[in-house]
Design brief:
This protein has one domain. 66% of the residues lie in helices and 0% in strands. It contains five helices and no strands. The longest helix has 29 residues. The chain is globular and about 45 Å long. The two termini are 20 Å apart.
Length: 175
């Protein structure tokens, strides 16, 4: 692997971290919600337009929190507390964003066409593959047809913010 690809992956990773933060802030802004840090995961189905308050996905209980609970409980041999789930969920959310951003940054160094559209096609791809296909297949969200179109549109919007942020950071760091 050449140095440019490694630097591109590092720039993408930085963008993925900031993009993960930005997508949640955007979701809270457009959804009119600013979740408190101690808020418990949602247990009920919401028809509101905005995706969940934690990671911007369409599932009611954030997939990042569900993933943290599954892994944490297997590793610890006990159910996690709400605080442990929340912290673990944040770690999963940012790790996923960092990995996705690193892959994008790596790909951008190999083929500049990847960056056309200022990261928006990348954000849309993450939304489609992770939110719309991956989460339901993994059992972390209901089938896409279970949610109203407004929830899908809002989740897409947060992921477009993610993609544009990843590309903006990558361009600043890589020129």
């Amino acid at each position: 692997m050449n140095a440019k690809a490694v630097l591109g992956a590092a720039a993408g990773m930085a963008g993925g971290l900031l993009g993960s933060w930005m997508m949640v802030r955007f979701n809270h802004l457009v959804g009119g919600v600013e979740a408190s840090q101690s808020e418990a995961p949602k247990e009920h189905f919401r028809l509101a337009a905005s995706p969940n308050d934690t990671d911007g996905t369409i599932s009611d209980e954030p997939a990042s929190i569900q993933s943290a609970a599954i892994v944490g409980e297997k590793l610890s041999g006990r159910p996690l507390s709400l605080e442990e789930k929340r912290l673990g969920g944040q770690a999963f959310h940012y790790a996923f964003g960092a990995i996705a951003g690193a892959l994008y940054g790596f790909a951008a160094e190999r083929n500049r066409e990847v960056t056309s559209g200022f990261g928006l096609p990348f954000g849309a791809t993450v939304w489609l593959t992770a939110d719309e296909i991956g989460l339901p297949l993994a059992g972390l969200a209901a089938p896409p047809t279970s949610y109203p179109p407004s929830r899908h549109a809002a989740a897409l919007g947060t992921h477009l913010v993610f993609g544009a942020t990843v590309e903006a950071v990558r361009r600043i760091l890589r020129g």
